[in-house]
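Notebook, p. 212. Picked up where the previous page left off. The plan for this session was modest: take the two constructs that came back from the sequencing core last week, fold each one, and keep the raw output in the notebook itself so nobody has to go hunting through shared drives later. Recording the first one now, exactly as returned: residue sequence, then the structure token string.
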Amino acid sequence: MDSNAILKQLLLSAVSATSAVVDQLRKNLDELVVQGRLNPEDAKQFLDDIFIRIREEQGNLEDQFRKQVRIALKELEVPTQSEFEVLKARLEQLEFQVRQLQDRR
């Protein structure tokens, strides 16, 4: 599984978890309204505010996740794509030099 697929799966999991929390919150607010402890308009406004906040945070979630993955990979000393390409080019150069030395014999 490539990193984009993993990222998508994690984001889908986060969306699913958020959805479950919102559903539970809606049930709890409905209960408070039925009990008369909360005004229906206040419950609706609270949910609207929550949805606005979720939308705002949703935009940042992927960026934050990518940043954390980069930090973790750096701490594990996993080479970046560009570092890998430099190493690959160096290896190809050394292989070429070895072939030239072998051909001289």
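Okay, moving on. Second construct, recorded in the same format:
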Amino acid sequence: MLSLKNISLTQFKNYTHTAYAFQQRIVGITGRNGSGKTNLLDAIYYLCFTKSYFSSNEGQNTQYHTNGFRLEGVLERNSQLHRIICTVKDGKKEISLDDESYDRFSRHIGQFPAVMIAPDDAEIILGGSEERRKWLDALLSQLYPSYLEHLITYNKVLQQRNSLLKTIATQGRSQDALLDIFDEQLAQHGAPVFEMRQAFLPAFIRQVQQLYDYLAGRHEVVNIQYQCHLLEQPLDKLLAANRHKDMLLQRTSSGIHRDDLVFLLDDHAMKASASQGQRKSFLFALKLAQYEVIKLHKQFPPLLLLDDVFEKLDQERVTRLIQLVSSPEYGQVFITDTHARRLLDAFEGKEEFQLINNE
């Protein structure tokens, strides 16, 4: 079991200094728009991922007219208490677990898993390929530390190769020997990422289908199609074949950084053909399947963070969602809404429910 016992926020977004204690498995957070409900969920997410769900710019996570922020939380994992402290000051970030500072933040990922469902998640379906890769990477990084290490190294080498391609274009000098080294490194670290993505999806989509049918209240065939250059040939051969093209473009045109996922509904691209209700059902099924996979892999349920779901789903889907997350198989759930009465009605009779008024 994983649960957050308490959290304190100092100069984080709209919080000057506030602390919360969580006594129950299901925590409702209510308050008007702008009161900081979403920011509280983001602070919880930050403790688990060492970064914000919504912003990669730490300046946007820092309260106005201050030079940093501090988050501290106590989490219980398998009956053991752990303290996480995240501080950002004057642009410098530090993360510690039980008073031991991390030399690499990536070592924290997956230790305290969490799944966030937020309104902006629609971009996973409607946005560009980067949004879908980011979602898949966040999921697989929590499951497999080696995946995250390969991905980090791949992206560093990719930056170096792209920088070299720009230098070659500017200076007009051949750098084949250095390009050979970068190509070898990209192939070395790209192949495991490709293999893990490819191996993961077939079983995962079956879980998404089950949850989609449940949330939608009817059966429609959903699927995820994996698009990757490495399905055609190994990365070292692709890089060699496209080297001249890459020199002209001044960037690396093939590799796992160009992967995409096509979400299908009855064999049609969901992005173009699905209704808003169908997309919402699929998105929630996608995230809840992510939750189930992490729970199975870790042997305990991750934290589930639900932001503003009452405003985004119709009553039927909300009812099914609440029934699902209220079941004993789920772990600690945090859910926000602007209406306290709606939260109280949704979880009426549930002894494990706690309401926090964030006015």
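Notes on construct two before I forget. Residues 124-298 form a domain with the Glutathione S-transferase Yfyf (Class Pi); Chain A, domain 2 fold (CATH 1.20.1050.90).
Flagging for discussion at group meeting.
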